[in-house]
């Protein structure tokens, strides 16, 4: 019996090649899209989940109540990790973790830049990063120690074994001893680094970390076995009150989050974790399910649309005693066979497009072909698809009355017709939602790229201050200003796109003692306002003409409002105990992601030391404003100047606009994926619409022939064939609009600065849906209108 069903199914597939190709193509695309999305989702969920003690590792986050608002983030005091470990018996290990930065290293004649951080002595005992050389306990237990990756060890010393106990020079000033070599980080590690420096050395060279009122580093802890994270969180919620003077207008709380959940849940709202990349994971999981459903619906509609071709087969089999259950099993078996063919083709398609998909998403996804679970899951997905796709056609075809079937009369039930129309409406509802979502995601990305940041990010170049350049900053600036194409030069700590260091060590006359305010801060060089093209609303820029500028301050508008001076210029301000004068106020500019509101910012003149292990961070970068159209000429001249002043270090630079774009890499990837999957979903939906139009045309063939004999025009016949479908698209549009509006409104809430949801977005989406539907229906409508009248009417 099974062999007979297989032979019949194969014969039917071969007999109706065009129908079979459309069915298999639809299911292939549906399964391939779903498989790609599920691989991406699985990769996203695997990030940071490989650590052996993942259930015990937690990030500490800070919730700050001040001035009527609640902020949340992972920036914590630099002393927090060791103090928590000392006072909380539930904590077995703890480590501070510094910010990522790119540093220059040298060994012999080899010089290159590497990205890394500073971490506590417990770091390698908390995380399961494999050590190729050295021990976890001793890797970072001394200020002179450095742990490096296999890649870095091989580049400088030839192998991890040869790297051990070797000396490597940092920024041409400080020598470190390689105390450990760790395996290159896996692709699913969220935080990247090729070297780690000792935490105590970092505190020694950054004295501001010793103040409980300053925030910047992260704090990671590992609980003892059996310790309760919930109970510990209750104990530490008010931990900082012991170390910070609080008042009714200000207080800070601590919270805990599983480290392996942080990558997907890193967005804060009112001081609480409320989402993050998990939104995209859930969204695309739904898209995968929807695309698979759309493909299954296509199969249903195409199969039932072609049901007339199998009337005699069904009638004969029923007349010979076949019961409905046998027919149901046969038709579901045919659907499963088609689904498995589609599954094989989908797997081949995924193998072909996976490299491009990885490049698009910046992933390193590998098909787990050697894992039995993968094959079981793929077989289960394919079987499920076949059963779902074949269930309705099986029930529909097996319900025919054998007497009427043998007379060639297809049974038409209003319920079955409405079900098919409902399925097509559902398809187009999902497609229109995807169209609207894609347009709005693209608009938000364009809004971000075209946003006025308050400074000019075009033709602005960052050059790291490192090596010999740190001691020749003044010379470099003077010489650079004489080069062709260079308009202005300044300097700053960090970059204009990420000024996240905070402090509450700011005092001023008239400050409310019940209000403790936090300010973002950075050090800059002379002519900073001029170089950045910032707009002064009062006062002036830092200038060498004023010796007192070494203890002067420039505020943004938000900081000036927070302080409350009506005329801030000339007023006294104390920063970390250093009293100075406010000399200028600049118009607010974005120095962080557009996800965040502009925060109060205080700029100080750079007078930091250039020695010590974090000298390059202290010295920061040169900001060079280049004349439009002379970028190549200016960069060539800057490279020659750099070689003269800093010959041991290769010249490097970064364009400000490219760095800004990297802030929104996730949104750009999501935007491109949305376009691709929306187009595929629409294409698959069109196959479903084509199936229903074929079915309808078969039912109205004689009606169309009679209308043509009576003189009906082609346009009127087209309206007859397309009217029902346009009404289905209209209904789908009415359902899709409120659903899409709600979904995109929720998504846009993660941006403090966002595009508006305009009416024309919905109008354009509806117009596109109508044009796509008309184009699809017209394919079959034209064929039906041009049928041979004699052949059509001969059956009557």
Automatic annotation (TrEMBL):
GO CC term (a single one): plasma membrane
GO MF annotation, one: transmembrane transporter activity
MacB-like periplasmic core domain: residues covered: 20-237, 457-636
Segments crossing the lipid bilayer: 21-41, 283-302, 331-354, 374-397, 418-441, 673-695, 716-737, 757-782
Occurrences of domain ABC3 transporter permease C-terminal (ranges): 286-402, 676-788
UniProt key word Transmembrane helix: yes
Cellular compartments annotated: Cell membrane
Domain of life: Bacteria
PROSITE patterns named among the record's database cross-references: PROKAR_LIPOPROTEIN (PS51257)
Membrane-topology descriptor: Multi-pass membrane protein
Entry keywords, A to Z: Cell membrane, Membrane, Transmembrane, Transmembrane helix
InterPro entries listed in its UniProt record: ABC3_permease_C, MacB_PCD, Macrolide_Exporter_MacB
Name listed for the protein in its UniProt record: Duplicated orphan permease
Organism of this sequence: Chitinophaga eiseniae
